[in-house]
Write a structure and sequence with these properties.
With 789 residues, the chain is of the alpha+beta class. 44% of the residues lie in helices and 18% in strands. β16 and β17 (350-356) form a beta hairpin.
């Protein structure tokens, strides 16, 4: 039917639209569609036209000032007319809709005799109120004081007041636990209104939406317990997924429940299943997605389809196998609400800016993690899987299998969102220090669910978070830690030299000054020492040295020092065109670096870094980063050479000897050199000293030799530990004789191999006992490394 034919059949008449006598204009479409009418009137400052048939009505508002200014209904009203009349069964072409719009404009202006708005009237404006709250039709959650409101979209068959049923979309609203159903696009809440924006339609059926049964359970207060739902989910996960670590089943169960509350958390981690081909990554992804809120799985999505689907529905999206570069960019912003993707589109004669929010829970089954950069990896929780077809259901699940679990979760969303919000706030307070900002954003939803499910579950997950945090620090800051290692070694070597000069009278006590500034070349040399410590084999050392100069160029080292925040300047005192870069290194700076790059300041010696470092024990207790630095400082401040000024030796009690033997390095790398030969050479150099006895000369020689020996002290955590040279001072004087000779026997040194002890005053029996214990530990560790490799 053409537009002209429609106009001929429309009858118009003036009516009163309310009890106050407000005049309106009736457009009667009954000859075209039985019972269809449209009523137009002026309401305050708007032109309102309502199309209705029976109990169904669709209102449309247009600002009155626009009509006065243009003296016509806006061109966009043609599109609205076409859409509204289509609902009532009348199909119009665009040209016919324009004809109808112009007809209605003329009739309205003729009856109401509107005058064109003057410029003065148009400029006279005032602010009445804020825009209020705006929410997507995909669901929302708002809290204010003791009031809260949560909504969830339902798509299904709806029966209206006259008993007619048709498929439609409505909102299931829970206001402080009271359930109501509404089509309204403006929902009152507290002292404002929530404007509902629907950005499109869902044509394909989605089986993971809220069901009629879930709504009925919420109305009847049939509410499950948090722990009950958690156990059901975890049972299904264990039936279908081969976890390498059982703790991942706890994490995944909490994640699935948290997907129903992402509009409260405003963040959600990216879950990635990792494993060999055939380990069941796709099955695991589907299992997780189909139990989650509005979950569905897709293959090879495009960038536009992904963020538009997310913005329309806020689902839990599972992506299988391949991920394009554009999708990776979407994932970067998809873990947190409020990071928009912008698109400018042309509509009619105007350009329109559209904002798409890609935030939603993502679940990936991608084998190759090289598809992701470090920024995306930081926002991931990786679930490692093992190839083991036995013990799990081999078939992929369907959404119908988890309908009861989804019902439980939707009921929790509608009835207990305030409990989740309270748990989330307590988690944020309790872990604000223990977890950094990024860690808290990643884990807060999972921890909130864990807290609601039980303290023991929360403790298990926290333990796993700390382990993962350690792994991440080890992998991310490996180079930075190696440089910090070199800085501490350089600093402690300087402390040792200062002590020696004081001990032997090279400088007066009042002139003693510890260095706090070091040249770049010194730092690089110290870094090289640390790097080459991994082996005692000379050929391997040569190979590593070539690798070092290839990888650790000056630019790279300088960039890392700058990133660590070290102050520097150029020293131009040296002749030449270029000055030497000088860096300031103090104990305070080193302690700060320990805290920043070794979270929690605790030891974790099980992890193996690129350069093998291991912890030192003080009185059989592991030192934290801060206490280890303090230990270095305390030791360096002591006068470790016990010789008095005239060459006499102070006596040492058995108790002191026993105390000294408790401090040792469990697995350092010892330099293979003949200490006896060095002792003899140094003894020849000191043979002309006639002022001291032979015994005193021997002891002083040993003091100098021991002063340059390295004692590795690990000052860090999380696997890549520090191994600075501690400055334990020179070796304490002791009597010469058989005990001293056996201590420096090269055969004993060879037996120690990679294990180096702090050499203190002890008897031969004590030394042999420690050597046996060290050899036993070394063999056990060597066996473990062989098994591991």
């Amino acid at each position: 039917m053409s537009g002209e034919n429609i106009i001929e059949k429309i009858k118009t008449d003036e009516i009163e639209v309310d009890e106050n006598g407000t005049k309106g204009l009736l457009f009667d479409f009954s000859e075209i569609i039985d019972g269809l009418v449209a009523t137009a009137f002026i309401d305050d400052k708007d032109f309102v036209i309502t199309f209705g048939k029976g109990d169904e009505a669709i209102p449309k508002k247009i600002p009155l000032n626009y009509i006065k200014r243009k003296m016509e209904l806006p061109p966009t009203f043609s599109r609205d007319l076409k859409a509204i009349l289509k609902v009532f069964g009348l199909e119009l072409k665009k040209g016919d809709a324009d004809v109808l719009r112009i007809f209605m404009t003329k009739e309205f202006l003729k009856r109401f005799k509107l005058q064109e708005l003057t410029e003065e009237e148009e400029d006279k404006i005032e602010i009445v109120a804020n825009d209020g709250l705006i929410a997507d039709f995909s669901g929302f959650a708002f809290f204010k004081n003791d009031e809260w409101i949560v909504a969830e979209p339902f798509i299904g068959w709806i029966k209206n007041g006259n008993g007619e049923a048709k498929k439609s979309a409505i909102l299931v609203v829970s206001r402080n636990g009271e359930i109501e159903l509404t089509r309204s696009r403006a929902i009152p809440f507290a002292d404002t209104k929530i404007e509902i924006v629907q950005k499109g339609k869902i044509l394909a059926p989605l089986q993971t939406l809220i069901t009629k049964e879930a709504v009925e359970r919420a109305k009847n207060n049939n509410i499950p317990e948090w722990r009950e739902v958690f156990e059901k989910i975890r049972e299904e996960l264990l039936k279908r997924i081969n976890f390498v670590n059982e703790i991942d089943s706890y994490i995944l169960a909490c994640f699935i429940i948290s997907t129903y509350f992402t509009d409260i958390t405003k963040t959600s981690p990216i879950i990635r299943f990792a494993g060999l081909q055939g380990s069941g990554k796709t099955r695991a992804m589907k299992t997780t997605v189909f139990m989650s809120r509005r979950g569905f799985a897709i293959l090879d999505p495009s960038e536009a389809s992904l963020f538009r689907s997310v913005d329309l529905l806020r689902p839990t999206i599972g992506i299988d196998e391949e991920i394009s570069q554009a999708v990776r960019l979407v994932l970067k912003g998809g873990y947190k609400k409020g990071l928009y993707i912008t698109r400018v589109t042309k509509k009619s004669d105007d350009f329109v800016l559209e904002l798409f929010d890609p935030f939603t829970p993502y679940v990936l089954s991608v084998k190759d993690d090289r598809a992701f950069d470090e920024q995306v990896k930081r926002r991931m929780i990786i679930v490692q899987m093992i190839r083991n077809p036995e013990g799990v259901e081999p078939k992929d699940p369907s959404p119908e299998e988890f309908e009861k679990i989804r019902e439980d979760c939707y009921v929790l969303r509608l009835k207990k969102p305030h409990e989740f919000k309270e748990a989330l706030e307590t988690v944020q307070r309790d872990y604000s220090t223990k977890l950094d900002a990024d860690g808290l954003e990643l884990w807060q939803g999972i921890l909130a669910v864990a807290r609601l499910c039980g303290k023991e579950i929360e403790e298990k997950i926290i333990e796993e978070i700390e382990r993962r945090k350690i792994d991440w620090y080890e992998e991310t800051f490996r180079d930075e830690r190696l440089v910090i290692d070199a800085l501490i070694r350089l600093k402690t070597q300087n402390k040792r030299q200062t002590d020696l000069e004081m001990e032997f009278g090279h400088i007066r006590e009042e002139e003693e000054e510890e260095r706090e500034e070091f040249y770049f070349e010194e730092i690089k040399a110290s870094l090289k020492e640390v790097y080459l410590e991994i082996t005692d084999d000379e050929e391997e050392k040569k190979r590593l040295e070539q690798v070092f100069y290839r990888y650790w160029n000056n630019t790279k080292i300088g960039r890392i020092l700058k990133d660590l925040g070290l102050e520097s300047y150029r020293d131009w005192s040296r002749s030449g065109n270029r000055g030497r870069r000088v860096y300031k290194i103090t104990d305070e700076i080193l302690i700060k670096l320990c805290k920043n790059y070794y979270p929690d300041n605790e030891w974790l010696h099980q992890q193996q870094p690129c350069v093998s470092h291991t912890p030192i024990y003080q009185n059989h207790e592991k030192l934290g980063a801060t206490s280890a630095i303090s230990y270095i400082q305390d030791e360096t401040s002591k006068n470790n050479i016990t010789s008095n000024g005239d060459g006499n030796n102070k006596s040492e009690t058995d108790e002191d000897r026993n105390k000294n033997t408790t401090k040792r390095d469990d697995s350092s790398y010892m330099k293979k050199e003949n200490l006896n030969e060095k002792e003899n050479e140094d003894s020849d150099e000191t043979s002309n000293d006639n002022a001291e006895t032979k015994e005193t000369k021997t002891n002083d020689m040993r003091s100098e030799e021991k002063e340059v020996e390295d004692e590795k002290l690990e000052v860090g955590t999380l696997g890549t530990q520090f191994s600075p040279k501690s400055i334990n001072g020179s070796m304490q004087n002791r009597g010469a004789g058989a005990e001293s000779e056996s201590l420096l026997d090269p055969e004993i040194i060879k037996k120690l191999d990679q294990i180096k002890f702090e050499i203190d005053v002890m008897t031969e029996a004590e030394l042999n006992e420690i050597i046996k214990e060290a050899e036993k530990e070394f063999e056990e560790r060597k066996g473990d490394e062989a098994n591991e490799s």
